[in-house]
Amino acid sequence: MEFKRLEKWGSELNLCIRCGYCCEHCPLYRASNWEIDTPRGRLLLAYGLLTGEVDPSPYVAEKLFECFYCGNCSKSCSAKVTPTDIFTDARADLLEFGFAGQGTTVRNDEKLCMACGRCVLTCKSEALSVDMGSMRVLVDKVKCKGCGVCVAECPVGAMSQKTGFGVSREELSAAVENSLRTMNGSPKVVVFCCNWSMTPGLQLSRMEFKGAENASGIIVTVCSGRIDPGLILEAFDQGAWGVMIACCPLDECEHDGNYRAKERCALVGRLLDVLGVQSERLKLEHFATGEAQKLKNALKSFAGEIASLGPI
Amino acid sequence: MDIDVKRLKEIVGEEDVRDDIADLYVYGSDASVHEANPSVVVRPETVEEVQGIVRYANTALVPVIARGAGSSASGQAVPIDGGIVIDFKRMNRIKAIRPRDILCKVEPGVVCDDLNRALQPHGLWFPSAPESGRIATIGGTIANNGSGVRAIKYGTMRDYVLGMKVVLANGDLVTLGADTRAQASGYQLDRLMVGSEGTLGLIVEATLLLRHLPRFKAMGMAKFSKLEDAGETISDIVASEVTPSLLELVDDIAITALNKTLNMNLPQVEAIVVFECDGRLKDAVDYDMATIKEICEKNSAFGVEMGSDAKEMERIYSGRKKLFAALSRYREGLVCTSLADDMAVPSSRIAECARKIHEIGERNHVVMNAYGHCGIGLLHTKILMEVTRKEQWEDARRAVDEVYDYVRSVGGTTSGEHGIAISKAPAWKKEKADSLQMMKAIKTALDPNNILNPHKLMDAPDDWVTATKLRYPVQL
Predict the structure, then answer these.
(1) Contacts of B329 in chain A (CB under 8 A)
(2) Domain with CATH 3.30.70.2740 in chain B
(3) I want to staple A205 with a disulfide (CB 3.0 to 4.6 A). Which of B61, B81, B114, B374 is the partner?
(4) Is residue A68 part of a domain?
(5) Distance between CA atoms of B378 and B416, rounded to whole angstroms?
(6) B331-452, which class in CATH?
(7) What ipTM was assigned to the predicted interfaces of this complex?
(8) Does A13 touch chain B if contact means CB atoms closer than 8 Å?
(9) pLDDT tens digits, one per residue of B116-151
(10) Are B231 and B249 in contact (CB under 8 A)?
């Protein structure tokens, strides 16, 4: 089997020293804690495909189609290896051999889809198109970066992503409920954080004893573009006193998800006004990767404001 | 290898056993040059599950290899004979933080930097986190007696292990050590486990001594136009009354790599020495920093920069943390391999050793650099080479031999913090020639069926190049 696109990455894959420094930055690894879900693990798969030590299989394809393209692995790599570029070429080669993994790419439910095209317009990766003959939305699995912006944008819930990484619509809903149920003390603030690497607290370990810090109010969404207005309202409906959306600085989002979040925040703000709820209970803030301290400070100040407003 | 996967699934649950070739392949390597697939990977969550796995393996005579983050540099986590890899990442609970006892209790899969994040609100820290602490686990750090950059003041992992729970090769659980700093009761079996690389037992819980976070810190950087001057500076600082909390050497090869990959804009000099002092009193820290500055200048340092601003310290130090990988971009066509990578020599020999390393590299047609926690005599020397060219592995083998011959000749040791496993075993066996039998006797007593990380340390193959398949596409 000739992996035409992957071939050119052979020497780059040698440069990866397999130190694993990319691992802590990967939301997929955080969700599963399996080595195969680390950027290092997926690079190894690509390497194995090239050397023939790993045969292409539906499982291998599934793993290589799993990536949210947050790019944190590439940014953290001081050997300057760019895993996401390598995964993209591996996907294209695998597709050519008939291995189309679902991974983190989006799915379109033809029964629900009205082919309105809103998803196509929001996709910065140009992964979506409407086939005018069949009036179906087509997903380009190589281009789809799994940001979930289209999932949140679809008015009829026709777009979806596989569960298991904590960021599908169902999982986010469950996370909101769980977070509010287990939150200690007050004020009850739900924070949607677009990138877990800037959240404070533990990354790959657990604290399970009395007095342990409860950071459960922070829900990691990987991209703020996947937070739809319904999810924000659900949080208020379930008892949140305030909701903060922490997203990337405006021009730094790979998917323009922060622009979508800004629009949706404005919309929910107006709805809250109509419902007689102070719109300042919803706040959108921008943080660059690594600005954990800034996030911590912003959270503290927001919690203070919300505490003075009290519960809804 | 015939392994009863069904039995393992009964022990840890269906979800936490993997035997797809894709999983086995990714669990077959670490940060070393070695590669060998396990037969199955299991992820226990409880001590009982670990005991169940080991009991089964001991009966079925199947190797068991403990794995934390897989960041080991000499093949510790590579299952040289196949077998069961136990991935400890689900045993990642910080079980207790006891500020009044200045200790904590953790499971082996807890990540070192996570532990420090958890300790920070208590004003405490665990200083022995290695540079790879963002991923390295406590279990792996104990098993390799890791140390990290602050060992010069705060010691290495063995100084922080008060006690531990260990699953032995027959599946029995033993409690070693105690929750006290003072311990004078018989054999120090907990210490025996430190640095044993998973060959004597599996650590399932550790009790660690902690320290108070220093209130003040300052960091400095001195440039040298001669590597020898930098080395002499380090030796002089170590011999002085000042104990810095960090003392690192970065050579010209490392400087080039850092400038290339991280745009660090470091001056292209022969060597840079980075130092840090910390303490409870600002005046004391400043006084120590001034003393170090004097020593640097006496040894012809120029442009000594010092700062106590957190951002400035981060700037000075950030490159060093990313150096291992950055070396892969030193020169087109060369790849950074983790070979001969962490020897230690007496402090007075730092300059001589660094120069020797450069000479040996040159003589053997590979690039070798010298950097590391020189304050404890530790030098990191990666080998940069054309990994797909067969002859280069001969060159590397010779270079490794020559470096270690020198290290032994001056009373140094094969590994300062990364451990031995496979790639350093031939040199280490020469160093420890008269105590190998003692070690083998201990191994046989504790693991008579040789199931725990077999063929590592004293039992590793005599030629590291052919010990396993190499991770690079090269035909030897």
Answers:
(1) 15, 79-80
(2) 331-452
(3) B114
(4) yes
(5) 6
(6) alpha beta
(7) 0.94
(8) no
(9) 999 999 999 999 999 889 899 999 999 999 988 999
(10) yes
